[in-house]
Write a structure and sequence with these properties.
Layout (H helix, E strand, L loop, with lengths): L6 E3 L3 H11 L5 H19 L5 E7 L4 E7 L5 E6 L2 H11 L5 E8 L6 E7 L4 H4 L1 E4 L2 E2 L3 H12 L5 E8 L1 H10 L5 E6 L2 E2 L5 E2 L5 H6 L4
Parallel strand pairs: 1-10, 4-5, 4-7, 7-9, 8-9, 9-10
Antiparallel strand pairs: 2-3, 5-6, 11-12
Helix pairs in contact: 1-2, 2-3
Bound molecules: 1-O-pyrophosphono-5-O-phosphono-alpha-D-ribofuranose (PRP).
The site of 1-O-pyrophosphono-5-O-phosphono-alpha-D-ribofuranose (PRP) has 25 residues, from strand 4, strand 5, strand 8, helix 5 and helix 7.
Amino acid sequence: MTGVPGLHVADHALLSHRLAALRDVATPSPRFRRLLAEIGAILTMEATRDLPTGMMKVTTPLTTMDHRVLAGPEPVLVAVLRAGLGLLDGAMQVMPDAPVGHVGLVRDEHTLKPSQYMLRMPPEVTTRGAILFDPMLATGGSAVAAVQRVKEAGAPRLRFVCVVAAPEGVLALRAAHPDVPIYTAALDERLNERGFIVPGLGDAGDRCFGTEG
Ligand code: PRP
């Protein structure tokens, strides 16, 4: 499964350490939010490793040199509400100049189908492309819908960042949007009968904001 084209499972000691705490049922909301933000920063670094770059002259206190820099402006960061907000906090730390979009989706707990309740995209999405953030890729229904909405808004290039992914979600997103690479901190075992990722980390939105599912 890890050999799925377009699936990148980030392997980093600091990321794994934080993910262990994020999964822990005893981790309270304030710490959960902090961890999610830190993980968002690390995963943003992973997902942007191959952004196009060019060379620029830089004058140091000692000399002048050619230096590698981003070739264009930063892509739009898109949070899939609600839980994507947690990752967005970290992404904005490492890409402070990026415009931000929001897609509001909620999954029906019985049918597991997502429904949209809001969509706001900055105009830059049509030229810069976007990175979508949602901690959970479970059935993949929300990710498929979110990517579709951002494509309809005109984004030419997309990447999807999550924290835990189920094999079912990875396959669904890759099948629906084979042009969108997936970056995750972990590929988990399976979905349970209620559509929760196992072992997973529970409901990221509820744990982030202290609500009950
Ligand atoms: C969760 C999660 C994803 C979605 C994943 O959100 O944050 O958006 O479910 O499930 P799927 O892959 O089967 O679609 P939820 O709908 O619970 O909303 P919330 O973030 O507001 O809690």
